Structures are given as C-alpha cells and as structure tokens.
Amino acid sequence: MADKPTIVLVHGFWGGAAHWANVVVELHRRGHDRIRAVENPLTSLGDDAERTRKMIGQADGPVVLVGHSYGGAVITEAGDLPNVKALVYVAAFAPDAGESPGRLSEEMPPAAFENIAPDSDGYLWIRPEKFRESFAQDLGADEALVMAVTQKAPLGSTFGDAVTAPAWRAKPSWYQVSTEDRMIHPDNERRMAARMNPRKTIELDASHASLASRPREVCDLIDLAVRETS
C-alpha cells in the first residue's frame, strides 16, 4: 500500500486538466509525488463521474479528491469509493441529492451568468471577449487570453444533471470560497460549504480561477486535508 495519498484533481467547465498547472507545480514542490489530473469529457455528470472513478481506481492506496467549479459536482458524485478519504472543494459546486449546477446557479445567479452563450451544437461557451472579466479577472492578460482561447465547452444539458448520492455526507470535506467569484455566486459557495459542515472553510479574495491565481493557499488547504486524513 502507498504511504502517501494520491491527490486527484478534477477540473470544471470551460477548462481541462491544465487549469491545475500552478497547483500541480506547487504540490510537487512540497513533496507530493502522487498527483493525477482527470481530463473529463464534460458531456454529462455520469460520464465525468465515471471517468473520475476510473482514475481513482488506478490509485494505489488512499485518495484525496479535489474539485474546482463543476468538478465539485463530479467529486460529489464520484467520491463514494472506499479509498477516497477526503474531498476538497475549490470555488466549486457541492450539490445535494437531486440538485444540479444549473438549479443552484438559477437560485443565486452569478455576476457573469449572461456572458455564457450556446452554440448551434448545444455546447455552452463563455464569450471569449468576456472571459477574463467573467472567469479570471485576477490573472494576467496573457494567461487569461490562453484560457479564453483554449476553453473547453460543456454540453448545455450537463448543467441540469443532478447528483444522486452526495459523497460529502459521508466523507470529510474542506472548502475554499472565492469572494470575487463571478461564475458561482460567493454567497452560493458559502451556503453550499456551510451545509456540508466542512472541517475547514477558507475565503480568498480571488476570482473563479483561484486554482490559478492563488495556488499556494489552495495547496495549503489540500495539505491540511492530506494531514488530517492520513
């Protein structure tokens, strides 16, 4: 058995595994050598949870699951496997049973909701010219431009996919709120965090892209989850 947990990073809408780049580098610098990043298809919650479960199943020993944005819904759905020891939410959805990211967003619309636009094939995009101000206003112009151009659009129907059995009801959790988030309302993040009764909640003066703009603080939270569940 492995003596260290595997940290499995799960991205959200409008990005891929590379959104975790700064967190990966920081975790590696701190001595974590078991890091994996899921590349989800963003075609349905079921598809994404299954892809995540497969990566969890490849881990030798315990797993700490970390989800950003919609990735929080994915780890909520996929985190019921027995080797998952902790759930870390990074400016993320944490739906309860029967809830979907779309329903949660409609209850408390975020500031940039209107900057999401569908294409003719049913995929939803953040308008490229609005990407930085919507998703990553605390990143440099070049980094935000790359995110905007390389964004990975989800199928619109994925917004309506509901969680069945939320893993956070049985597994210890940690939560990071982004106080300047324009993609998930900060008060929605606080509400979702509070009902989970997490072991720790932190608030960062950050955009939705806190995983890129504040990797050290995000890694501090991941480290805490690792220590407290090892």
UniProtKB/TrEMBL annotation:
Q: Name one Pfam family in it.
A: Abhydrolase_6
Q: Which SUPFAM superfamilies match?
A: alpha/beta-Hydrolases
Range of residues in the leader sequence:
none
Residue ranges of domain AB hydrolase-1 in the record: 7-220
The terms under GO molecular function for this entry are: catalytic activity
> What is the name listed in the Swiss-Prot or TrEMBL entry for this protein?
AB hydrolase-1 domain-containing protein
Lineage start: Bacteria, Bacillati, Actinomycetota, Actinomycetes, Kitasatosporales
